[in-house]
Amino acid sequence: MIKVFLISGLGADTRLYNNIEIPDEFEVTPIDWIEPHQTDTLITYAQKIIYQYDIRPNSIVIGTSLGGMIAVEIAKKVALRTTILISSIKTIQERPAYFSFFRAFPVYKLFPGKSLPAIAILIKPVFGKMVGNDAWLFQDMLKKSSPVFVKWAMGAILNWDNMITPANVYHIHGDVDHVFPVKYIKDAAILEGGSHIMIFDKAKQVNKWIKPILKK
């Protein structure tokens, strides 16, 4: 049975994939975040995930946002059957312009680690509009995020320097994603009306894209 590994985004946990449907013929393993060392990069962190979860060749990795960036690094080390990115970027050529500002002025370092999840809640509107259970779940994931992990991840994302797109990478992106604007995205299936959190509010459409990719 082919294994499918699910990697969530910054400030999220495996519940991010609650509405994503993976066919029964696949063995699904949601990946929980590992506490990083302060010197970890996305490259070294991806290697830790490979070891921790025993990700082997011919596996499938699905990553959302930060999870997509880590999925790319995994795919550079392991010959995956398929890598699916959702609301993410493949290389630094797709990173938005504001990355340069925050690399030069890393203001997130000025805030105590324990305050970062609260700050993330304040900028929630940037991710997209959520209602009902989705809004509650998103906020709950942010509140339960590890402050150490969140602070490390912000730096690791800003300093990611990948320029390689591995083989068998499929990218699904929304045209109203304000975190990773679509104008910078290349070679992706574009979901009309999809925001950065379309995995929540447009899960049915995302599932329609994922299922045929899994069967390739």
Question: How does this model look, in words?
Answer:
The protein is α/β, with parallel strands linked by helices and 216 residues long. It is built from nine helices and six strands. The chain has one domain: Rossmann fold. 38% of the residues lie in helices and 14% in strands. It has a six-stranded parallel sheet with strand order 2-1-3-4-5-6, with helices on both faces. The longest helix is centred in the first third of the chain and has 12 residues, at 42-53. The protein is globular. The two termini are 15 Å apart. The relative contact order is 0.19.
Using brief descriptors, characterize the structure shown.
216 residues; 9 helices; alpha/beta; Rossmann fold; globular
Helix content: 25-40%
What is the H-and-E element order? EEHEHEHHHHHEEHH
The major pleated sheet works out as:
6 strands, parallel
Gross CATH architecture:
3-Layer(aba) Sandwich
Describe this structure in a few short sentences.
The chain is an alpha/beta fold and 216 residues long. The chain contains 9 helices and 6 strands, in the order E-E-H-E-H-E-H-H-H-H-H-E-E-H-H. It has a single domain, classed as 3-Layer(aba) Sandwich (Rossmann fold).
Element layout with pairings:
Layout: E1 2-7, E2 26-30, H1 42-53, E3 60-64, H2 66-77, E4 82-86, H3 98-104, H4 116-122, H5 124-127, H6 132-143, H7 147-158, E5 169-174, E6 189-191, H8 198-201, H9 203-214
Parallel strand pairs: 1-2, 1-3, 3-4, 4-5, 5-6
